[in-house]
Write a structure and sequence with these properties.
The complex is a heterodimer of chains A (114) and B (112). Chain A has 114 residues and is mostly beta strands. Chain A has no helices and 11 strands. By secondary structure, chain B is an all-beta fold. In chain B, the strands form 2 sheets. In chain B, strands 2, 4, 5, 9, 10 and 11 form a 6-stranded mixed beta sheet that branches. A 5-stranded antiparallel beta sheet of chain B has the order 1-3-8-7-6, with no helix packed on it. Classes of the chains: A mainly beta (114), B mainly beta (112). Chain A binds chain B through residues 31, 33, 40-45, 48, 50, 56, 58-59, 90, 94, 96, 99, 101-103, 105-108, and chain B through 1, 6, 9, 32, 34, 42-46, 49, 51, 89, 93, 97-105.
């Protein structure tokens, strides 16, 4: 059981380049989330999905797009990277069944935009 | 939307002392309040959580209290150890999409 995995672990981009971050889970969870973590800012929600084929905006969605074509995968895209998107990105999942709310986090992707 | 304030931002204690971290939230509909521990370079991991129908919960050296009327909740760590040193985040959640709103974190340092 791998749990929640993220690809890649590290990436350096130049301003204007694009990339896609992959979050994969084998927990059969319905809910998936993308956060960014910046020093002193905590974790801020970018986008989330409540099930296969659905996506919704979080607190800081600008400059990002997402897709959830398969239940187990949640993709985060940066179409034209900017230095302000330098951050650590975490994916999380939640079973959402009954009253169980715990979110399980992936190991993170450290992205630097030059 | 929900807003979560967390204090203090840094906390330094001697080994064996207690540590208390406090959070307030704004949305009275929030009903789930987890605490996450994040060690340097690692992912956040849940250490304890509490639901709005409970006032206090304990798990060995850690406890969480919730005051729904005042909309605040606190993490208490007793008999602190150096391995408790980490960043701690509180969060609040309500509604059917299980979204979490996080506080900005507290860097806890336990000095030997």
């Amino acid at each position: 059981n791998a749990g929640v995995t993220q690809t890649p672990k590290f990436r350096v981009l130049k301003t204007g380049q694009s990339m896609t971050l992959l979050c994969a889970q084998d927990m059969n969870h319905e809910y998936m989330y993308w956060y960014r973590q910046d020093p002193g800012m905590g974790l801020r929600l970018i986008h989330y999905s409540v099930g296969e084929g659905t996506t919704a905006k979080g607190e800081v969605p600008d400059g990002y797009n997402v897709s959830r074509l398969k239940k187990q995968n949640f993709l985060l895209g940066l179409e034209s990277a900017a230095p302000s998107q330098t951050s650590v990105y975490f994916c999380a999942t939640c079973g959402g069944s009954g009253s169980y709310n715990e979110q399980f986090f992936g190991p993170g992707t450290r992205l630097t935009v030059l | 939307g929900e807003n979560v304030e967390q204090h203090p931002s840094t906390l330094s204690v001697q080994e064996g002392d207690s540590a208390v971290i406090k959070c307030t939230y704004s949305d009275s509909a929030s009903n789930y309040f987890p605490w996450y521990k994040q060690e340097l370079g690692k992912r956040p991991q849940l250490i304890i959580d509490i639901r709005s129908n409970v006032g206090e919960k304990k798990d060995q050296r850690i406890a969480v209290t919730l005051n729904k009327t005042a909309k605040h909740f606190s993490l208490h760590i007793t008999e602190t150890q150096p391995e408790d040193s980490a960043v701690y985040f509180c969060a609040a959640s309500g509604g059917s999409n299980y979204k979490l709103t996080f506080g900005k974190g507290t860097l806890l340092t336990v000095n030997p």
